[in-house]
């Protein structure tokens, strides 16, 4: 593949965690660093793509030359993605979206009181499943971070969310997943192919993921 193999492609990437507010000073979130999504954004830009990065809060330096859309909650991320879907060729959902959010966000700080406090949660929308349902001839890629039954769970996401590829990684393995610079991934495709990749840097993995996306886009006539 040539360095400009994604020239002109409009690529939307989500990265990082989401924050679900409990009150004005507290939230629920996860350990996602955003490193994988940012690495993909940088690499896609190097390959000539027009990149939009919808990012939850991270400590990373924003890549140059791309359109950055900062968001906090899953609902904000959903809106940012759906608003831009029409003018997008490739969607890569590397964000660790919180599955649940507090049912009520208190307008004022929740004060210390009784010895127990019950926090009621409600389900967040599944952005990837929504995008998958209306993907048309776009290439849509999701991630699956699992601690057990990796292939079975990732296959369920591949078909259940109607996406073209799942990047699956067993986050219980050392050197894979959240907050490290390496990853050990398996790429699952809809034809049943499972490509097992060795441990590699997230930058290098970003390149492999974009190689496969370019092939998928070519097959759909989107490259
Ligand atoms: O179901 P699970 O959260 O493990 O699926 C992971 C994939 O789905 C990731 O690509 C993630 O970005 C996406 N996702 C989403 N919206 C959610 C939950 C997950 O887009 N509410």
TrEMBL record:
| Reactions catalysed according to its record | N-[(R)-4-phosphopantothenoyl]-L-cysteine + H(+) = (R)-4'-phosphopantetheine + CO2; (R)-4'-phosphopantothenate + L-cysteine + CTP = N-[(R)-4-phosphopantothenoyl]-L-cysteine + CMP + diphosphate + H(+)
Q: Which residue ranges are recorded for the region named Phosphopantothenate--cysteine ligase? A: 11-223
Describe the location of the DNA/pantothenate metabolism flavoprotein C-terminal domain by residue ranges.
6-215
Q: What is this protein called?
A: Coenzyme A biosynthesis bifunctional protein CoaBC
Coverage span on the entire protein: 179 to 401 of 402
The pathway it acts in is: Cofactor biosynthesis; coenzyme A biosynthesis; CoA from (R)-pantothenate: step 3/5; Cofactor biosynthesis; coenzyme A biosynthesis; CoA from (R)-pantothenate: step 2/5
* One biological process term in Gene Ontology: coenzyme A biosynthetic process
List GO molecular-function terms, semicolon-separated: FMN binding; metal ion binding; phosphopantothenate--cysteine ligase activity; phosphopantothenoylcysteine decarboxylase activity
The UniProt entry's sequence similarity note says: In the C-terminal section; belongs to the PPC synthetase family.
EC number(s): the record gives 4.1.1.36, 6.3.2.5
Query: Keywords on this record?
Result: Decarboxylase, Flavoprotein, FMN, Ligase, Lyase, Magnesium, Metal-binding, Multifunctional enzyme
Q: Which cofactor does it need?
A: Mg(2+); FMN
| Ligand binding (CTP) | 99, 109, 125-128, 143, 157, 161
Q: What is the lineage of its organism?
A: Bacteria, Pseudomonadati, Thermodesulfobacteriota, Desulfuromonadia, Geobacterales
């Amino acid at each position: 593949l040539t360095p400009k193999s994604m020239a002109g492609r409009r690529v939307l990437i989500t990265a990082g965690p989401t924050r679900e507010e409990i009150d004005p000073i507290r939230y629920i979130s996860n350990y996602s660093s955003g490193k994988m999504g940012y690495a993909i954004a940088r690499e896609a830009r190097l390959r000539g793509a027009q990149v939009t990065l919808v990012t939850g809060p991270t400590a990373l330096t924003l890549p140059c030359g791309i359109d950055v859309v900062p968001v906090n909650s899953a609902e904000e991320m959903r809106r940012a993605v759906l608003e831009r879907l029409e003018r997008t060729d490739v969607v890569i959902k590397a964000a660790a979206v919180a599955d649940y959010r507090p049912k009520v966000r208190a307008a004022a700080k929740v004060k210390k009181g009784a010895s127990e406090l019950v926090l009621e949660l409600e389900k967040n929308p599944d952005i990837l499943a929504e995008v998958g349902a209306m993907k048309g001839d776009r290439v849509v890629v999701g991630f699956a971070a699992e601690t057990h039954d990796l292939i079975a769970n990732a296959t369920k996401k591949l078909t259940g969310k109607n996406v073209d590829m799942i990047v699956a990684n067993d986050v219980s393995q050392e050197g894979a997943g959240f907050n490290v610079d390496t990853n050990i991934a398996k790429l699952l495709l809809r034809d049943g192919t499972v490509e097992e990749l060795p441990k590699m840097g997230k930058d290098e993995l970003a390149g492999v993921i974009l190689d496969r996306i370019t092939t998928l886009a070519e097959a759909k006539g989107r490259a």
